[in-house]
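[audit] Reproducing an earlier prediction to check determinism. Same input, same settings, fresh worker. If the tokens differ from the archived copy the diff job will pick it up downstream; this log only records the rerun itself.
[audit] input (275 residues):
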Amino acid sequence: MIFRTIPSLRAEIAAWKAAGERIGLVPTMGALHEGHLSLVNEARKTCQRVIVSIFVNPRQFNNPSDLALYPRTEEDDIALLTGTDAVFIPSVETMYPAGYCTAVHVGGLSTRLEGAHRPGHFDGMATVVTKLFTITGADCAFFGEKDWQQLQIVRRLVADLALPIEIIGCPTLRERDGLALSSRNRRLTPQAREIAPQLHSIMQETANSIRQGTPINEALNTGLSALKNAGFAPIDYLDCCHAETLEPAERNNDPLRLMAAVALDTVRLIDNIVI
């Protein structure tokens, strides 16, 4: 069922809750791919009801041209979600009515990596996610690990505000050549698509080097040179962080995550892997 207003969705949810059914939420910005569908499948394993939201949130785009170019494929998305209990497709006016002036800010985790390169992005994300949690009253929400920093921020948000929802991270899905699935991949030119998988392969080489004892800064510098030589530009970051705090890694035996953000033909690609 398709819902475009908050009252209509809440009326349906009230019936589910009255029946004691567990509700899962999969927040998306549409342009759905197999990665999104894997989240829906995970939700179905543990929840009697699954809600997928589709909302291109203008408040998490720091670049107006990026917002304008973001793919919008509503009809195709709805077709992929046949059988989903509820697809919530609100308008911007529904989510941010006239006079709207509230924002959610998660400090610390939001200031590095993506936060440093996309000012305001995580405030917009945290705000819309908080709204979706309160609108749906979901018992759990499913997020992909590809957006690792986002996942950690959402977990921090839920813990800090004592929100009654469980956050479940799901593994990154990749193409056969290693490229992480992303809605933005469809904007890559054929030439850029051939280069794009090198991001993951170079990250794997960098991670292996760190695992084998190479000093972190040395391994990162080698990885940055490889990314540059492969044709990625600009390179926003290739960084090794503590997996939960996202602080810069100081030694090789922490729980570590290698994080990267690069561009090809103005298409921004992000990825991360466990070290």
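[audit] rerun output stored. Observation attached for the diff report: The beta strands are 2-3, 23-28, 49-54, 86-88, 140-144, 166-170, 235-242, 256-264, 267-274.
[audit] end
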